[in-house]
Known about the structure:
236 residues, Nucleotidyltransferase, domain 5, 2 domains, five-stranded mixed sheet, elongated
Amino acid sequence: MSLRQIVLDTETTGLEPSLGHRVIEIACVEVVNRRVTDRNYHQYLNADRDSDPGALQVHGLTSEFLRDKPRFREVAREFLEFIAGSELVIHNAPFDIGFLNAELTRIDLPPLATHVVGVTDSLRLAKDIHPGKRNNLDSLCERYGVDNSSRTLHGALLDARLLAEVYLAMTRGQDSLVMDLGREESGAVVEAMRIDPATLDLLVVQADADELAAHAAVLDDLHKASRGACVWKSAG
């Protein structure tokens, strides 16, 4: 079974849908079996209102530019068909979901959760992996070596593409040692090498007292930075 994920981002006229702010850009990038495909969904939207000055400074989408773009109700079905049955990956998911649910409510359609199999908040994931560090998209791009040099303003499609790369790097972990085994490459099939552990003569090196103390100090720092959420410390 293929794993289909949609990396989603939006731009909005402000910060609060409860104050009447609207979605003005939606972008979706498809990832299938941990590979970014060439399929995406991207749409600018006419919100019938101006963006707050702070929001406009972030995304640069003026009312004049958006005036001839469709309203959300005109593209909602197409958008929902694109994401249907997928897992959404969103950075700071409550923000985007709150806005999209507000748009769906306005046109009497059910909320986003009824159209997808789940939502992963990549910001929450990043905070769990890197407690106490900056985990905005620019910081994560720098941390994982993702080129974001073309990101001067926040554009939903560019941000979704960058987030897709960051998310795959952030969740690769030890899967990277085996994730590409078995795929076709240059016409040949690369198969995983199977090793019988009983045939191995492994050298086990025990940590000395200084190394154990240094390890304990690192765990203490993680425990403090994560406000007591360090699972290794708790397990100990």
